[in-house]
Design brief:
Length: about 350
């Protein structure tokens, strides 16, 4: 069977763990002989078996046919972590042909798995559907290469380009998108390890930042509130989910882990360094205008997702404008949803 086709299936399987694998990468494995798939597996979560182990378990104890091909989107591991090395398992089980999308940049692996396979005569084809595989694992790869989380900016704007309506009628989220789009936004939340808002957004909108409408993992709630604008009784401080507060001064009576940031200078580096130190590979920035602008103009960012609703606000806070065209766009109910990439080529944007 065509290795490209098998790799496509690997990536499909890998994405089953989009809300659970992090901080580990998304990995799928397929064992095939001729035109037939013999077994499949994927890595579900940290501490659970790797994709290759799942796949060979699904295959069973019988001998692996000599002409069988095992496809896996990430280089098999060569180090003793929580599980024995997968490269050794493949060799022990008699796998003779392996297709891999790309090497594992993780310093403990980094080519050693491929070397070990080739050293005993296993035929390794490297680079199969590499661009699509790198896109699938952009969070993991960015985190390893850049020492910071992969950053997704997200905002919703009215049809006339405002983030919110002025004057406000009390505290609370101003609805822009339709319920169908809300489900999508919550799926996005489930796929990132942390979600960040500024203190003023907490003061104005009082968002819960919890996962609703979909099943999946609740991300870490992160609030950057150097000036102490967010009231102690806000929903983000209700203790219903892990919360991290970056604050200028220690706050009493808030249900959150606190990290103090210097009163002057750029606090984003402290935020990104702290999250990286906690193993957070991806961050969804949900507002407000000042924080989004900070990322867009000064801080790093990787991806922006912009929802344009059908309502007209007339006056309010202007939504940010992006200089680059969208790489993807579609319509969900009455909302238009656009994806923008910072720096990456459109060819990398294979799938969402
Ligand atoms: Zn492994």
């Amino acid at each position: 069977m065509d290795p490209e086709l098998l790799m496509e299936r690997c990536l499909e399987l890998a994405r089953n763990a989009a809300s659970s694998a992090a901080p580990n990468p998304l990995v799928g494995a397929v064992l095939a002989q001729g035109g037939r798939i013999l077994a499949e597996g994927w890595h579900h979560a940290a501490g659970l078996p790797h994709a290759e182990v799942e796949c060979l378990r699904a295959f069973g104890d019988g001998p692996v046919p000599a002409d069988a091909l095992l496809a896996v989107n990430l280089e098999p591991c060569a180090h003793h972590g929580r599980t024995p090395p997968c490269a050794d398992l493949l060799i022990a089980r008699g796998v003779r042909r392996v297709a891999i999308a790309h090497a594992d940049p993780f310093p403990l692996v980094a080519g050693r798995g491929i070397d070990r396979l080739r050293a005993v005569g296993v035929v390794v084809e490297l680079g199969v559907r590499e661009a699509e595989a790198r896109w699938t694992n952009r969070r993991f790869l960015t985190s390893i290469a850049k020492g910071r989380p992969y950053i997704v900016l997200k905002w919703a704007r009215s049809a006339d380009g405002f983030l919110d309506r002025h004057p406000r009628e009390g505290r609370g989220v101003q609805r822009i998108s339709t319920p169908a789009t809300d489900v999508l936004v919550h799926r996005w939340r489930s796929e990132e390890q942390a979600v960040l808002v500024g203190g003023r957004t907490v003061a104005n909108d009082d968002p819960a930042l919890t996962l609703r409408h979909v099943s999946g993992r609740q991300p870490l709630r992160v609030v950057l509130d150097r000036s102490g604008a967010a009231p102690s009784g806000s929903k983000v401080f209700d203790g219903s989910a892990p919360t991290l507060l970056f604050t200028g001064n220690h706050r009493v009576g808030v249900n959150a882990e606190q990290v103090q940031v210097p009163p002057t200078g750029d606090p984003l580096q402290v935020v990104l360094d702290t999250l990286h130190g906690k193993g957070v590979r991806s961050l969804l920035v949900e507002g407000g205008a000042e924080l989004l602008g900070h990322f867009l103009h000064r801080g790093p960012w990787d991806e922006a997702r912009v929802i344009t609703g059908s309502a007209l606000f007339g006056a309010g806070t202007r939504a940010p404008l992006l200089p680059m065209p969208a790489v993807r766009a579609f319509t969900s109910a009455q909302d238009r949803i656009e994806f923008h990439l910072n720096g990456a080529t459109t060819e990398d944007a294979w799938c969402w």
